[in-house]
Here is the input.
Amino acid sequence: MQSDAVLSLFSGAGGFSSGFASAGLKPVCGAEIDADACSTYEANVDSPCHALDLSTVSASFFKDILGSREPLAIIGGPPCQGFSTAGARNPSDPRNRLIFNYLRIVEEVRPRWFIFENVEGLLTAGQGDAVFSLVGEFLRIGYSVRVHKVNFASYGVPQTRKRVLIIGNRLGADFVFPDETHSFESGKSRKKTANPLAPSLTQAIAGLGDPAGDIAGRTAYSSSAPHSDYDHLMRSGNETGSVSLHYSVTDSGDLEKFSHLRPGQTMKDLPEHLWHDSFRRRAFRRVQDGTPTERRGGAPSGIKRLRAHLNSLTITGAATREFIHPSEHRTLTLRECARLQSFPDRYEFTGNAASVAQQVGNAVPPLAARVLAHHIQHLDGQFGSGLQPSAISSQQRARLFGFVLTEASGMSPALQRTESLLFSLQQRDLFA
Here is the structure.
């Protein structure tokens, strides 16, 4: 008997899950170790969220929740800080092992599909060994997969956000990723096609009005009518005419820094006496102490003023400290960051400012998740309609159907090694 039951793992604030819910696939439950994020999830997805350490919980926990229902899909993105290119990459970070906890639950629960999301750093973690091992394990347990580095802006999200998606099924069905619907341009990432440009930063935060001076209370929209199609989308379901978390507090020191920056400029464009101490240490460390390249983390940029007419840069947990409004001398507000992540204005978050910033920055954008949910619905109807569980066998060997690691013309040596490893997996299963 077919089922549309979905399980959400490493659920965070519910971005992935709310996108699926908006497509008619509300998860049976979520699972998340962070109490604030779990509370946010329950308040907005209207589905239970279990406060669990997924590195220790038994997969039978989820099988008991499902009962007799055969799960359609497991979705989730294990914590990615150990792989992230935004900071120092640590291959021994224990959080990296959580990707295999995700796999263990997939193996036990046996959904027809899974969607695994992670940062692009996964592709070169351990010189490619991490993704090679993970894909090999998915094949071992009977799932045919595709690996694809995507930019969520290509699905209409108003920020360039590169992520790795691994999608697999145990139907033995070859499949493709959803078609891209938008071009994008953030200054750092760009792709110009015949598709319309994803909403610009200005279009995304239009209508929010002037921010308040403190965290308390709500602020009214600047007008009763939406200013853009995206503004209209974000206001949907918010009957209050106001929003929370739209506030800004800027001291005189920051005001001086911000006033020097033009759109597109970063801290390196400021006079040195205005550099943050952490930025100065990172900038000089590169030339003074011989720190190995792989331990330096991303290029230091500190604060940066965004460009109004382009898509935003990637929203992270640091966005409300680092991203300067295109024309106002302040950082982005939490609500502006939530909009750039495509959380609707009705979405309410639990926790202090630091907690909310992390929840927003870690999320899968609901708008992109909705695209993936509709695609899985289509694929399952195309390949799995009418199949009984007993008919889904391993008669057809699980295969790595393909992988897209970059759209750039060149590859780093690390990514070349990843390509070679994945190609060996693909050839092994093709000629086995």
